[in-house]
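Input.
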Amino acid sequence: MRGGEKVLEALCRMYPCADIFTHVYDASAVSDVIKQHKIHTTFIDRLPGAKKLYKKYLPLMPMALEQMDLNEYDLVISSESGPAKGIIPSPAALHVCYCHSPMRYIWNMYNRYYDSSGLMTRLMMPPLAHYLRTWDVATANRVDHFAANSATVSQRIKSYYRRDAEIIHPPVDTAAFHPIPSSEVGDHYLMVGELVSYKRPDLAVEAFNLMKAKLVVIGGGEMLDRMRRIAGPTVTIMGPQPFDVLKEQYSRCKALIFPGEEDFGIVPVEAMASGRPVIAFGRGGATETVVADKTGVFFDIQTIEAIIDAVERLEQIDFNPADAVARAAEFRTDVFIRKFKTFVGKSIGERANVGHM
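Output.
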């Protein structure tokens, strides 16, 4: 239940009779709201190890998507961050795409993924990425209207697909988080998220090693073992944690450290909903959620020194937790639902007008 699944959950609440089509379905990993819907899977779900190794089947996903039979549906909503919009709906159907990002590993982050991959993957990536880019651009024409989860993603859609996209920030369950009295806030900083290279957890750990300041890291991922190896005595690597622990850590930290560039970034909003400020890299979705010098501070380059400087600057600012909570509330789930319903309604109206011309 990460960001994409949270969007799906909100869509399920909006369309309680909708069917869900997906490559792989693991009932143990999704919410009851999603499980209440009729779920169809592609042939990838039946391949060996698909529930854990589904990413390995990326080359088969375009073909699997195009084999889905969607002819009986009048409205198709694709939730896209890696091939989903490539489905073939009925010619009479309206297809709207909520885009979390065009596929990062073939577009804006291709070189980073390539450099961090093993030898076999590096050999396969150039021809596969070339094929996927061609297919990805072609299938953008199968979408009637795009919505993007941030201005950052809207610009990527414009650059790669030459299409406009309405910006609708994703839903965040801000009501699940609450600030605590300032007397109960701890003396540690917090980093939350999947520990993968593009999120740059190594920068945060090394910066707090040098400062000999306390940092708590929550999250799993391919870099978990490495982070544990390089963590100094003031850095605690907790690994994946249940929600109750995460919620407590958000409210008790001095501030959240957010060193990567994200398409939107739900984590900073959750931290602000807990009344805590954010130290973030000044690119991507964080620039649309964090208010400089009011709910956090930014650093301009991804270096250890820049993070240390940002921490020192934050220490000089007197933040009001109420400002952070108020800012986070602008990204509530009900706000997403209202805006998305309006977007779909407008799209349906435009199609109806074209049909009567």
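The first strand starts at residue 20 and ends at 22.
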